[in-house]
Specification:
160 residues; alpha+beta; six-stranded antiparallel β-sheet; three-stranded antiparallel β-sheet
Length: 160
Amino acid sequence: MSTELELPFRLDTQLTEMMRLRVQSLQQRGQKRQEGERLLQANEAVYRLDFSQQSLRFSHWTVRLAQAGRLTITATSQLWTPDLTNLMTRQLLEPAGVFWRAVGDASDAPVQCYEADADEFGERIAELAKVRKVMYFLFAFEEGCSPETVDGSITFTADS
């Protein structure tokens, strides 16, 4: 028997702030980032997904954008340990999930996405859930999108 398990993306304010302080520290000292280091951009925040189970199959995304805008979700690999190392570009996974709402879309119109990429992305997350209890994501907010106007989760099928 299988059950659906919806896992919400949660803003990791502490990790986002830590990464913003890294950028600020480099700027204040006039230093450059490490070779290959991925610094957090002003329009980005770190979100996390906590897995309560490890044996999951991807089902679907639920992304809500309250207004027109674009949200890009990029996963980090299991090799990134944020409490020990800086984020490196090689630790970002592809494909990213890109979701958007165009200006003029009805408020009840579904959010659009590159469906094949989003499905592949969801399947990769399910694979990584087998070895992870938590996973981190970079959310990039563009074209009028902001953390206050976005809500997202991913639904899996869990074998019981």
